[in-house]
From TrEMBL:
<dbReference type="GO" id="GO:0003910">
    <property type="term" value="F:DNA ligase (ATP) activity"/>
</dbReference>
<feature type="domain" description="DNA ligase ATP-dependent C-terminal">
    <location>
        <begin position="2"/>
        <end position="35"/>
    </location>
</feature>
<protein>
    <recommendedName>
        <fullName>DNA ligase (ATP)</fullName>
        <ecNumber>6.5.1.1</ecNumber>
    </recommendedName>
</protein>
<feature type="region of interest" description="Disordered">
    <location>
        <begin position="32"/>
        <end position="52"/>
    </location>
</feature>
<dbReference type="Pfam" id="PF04679">
    <property type="entry name" value="DNA_ligase_A_C"/>
</dbReference>
<dbReference type="InterPro" id="IPR012309">
    <property type="entry name" value="DNA_ligase_ATP-dep_C"/>
</dbReference>
<dbReference type="InterPro" id="IPR012340">
    <property type="entry name" value="NA-bd_OB-fold"/>
</dbReference>
<dbReference type="GO" id="GO:0006281">
    <property type="term" value="P:DNA repair"/>
</dbReference>
<dbReference type="GO" id="GO:0006310">
    <property type="term" value="P:DNA recombination"/>
</dbReference>
Length: 52
C-alpha cells in the first residue's frame, strides 16, 4: 500500500459505491479550490423519504 498526501480536491459524479468501497462509473465534474483536502469526508446518503 502506498499512501499519498492529498493536495487537490475535485468534485465527481458517480453511480454508486461498490461492496468493496469503490466508486462505480465515476466522472470528473470540477476542481474545488474553495475547500482544503483535509476537510473532505465521505458523505453518507440519507434514505429517500417515503410518501404517506
Amino acid at each position: 500500500m502506498h499512501w499519498v498526501k492529498p493536495v487537490l480536491v475535485v468534485e465527481v459524479a458517480y453511480l454508486t459505491w461498490t461492496e468493496d468501497n469503490l466508486l462505480r462509473q465515476v466522472s470528473y465534474q470540477a476542481q474545488r479550490e474553495d475547500k482544503p483536502a483535509r476537510q473532505v469526508v465521505r458523505a453518507i446518503p440519507h434514505p429517500p423519504r417515503r410518501s404517506p
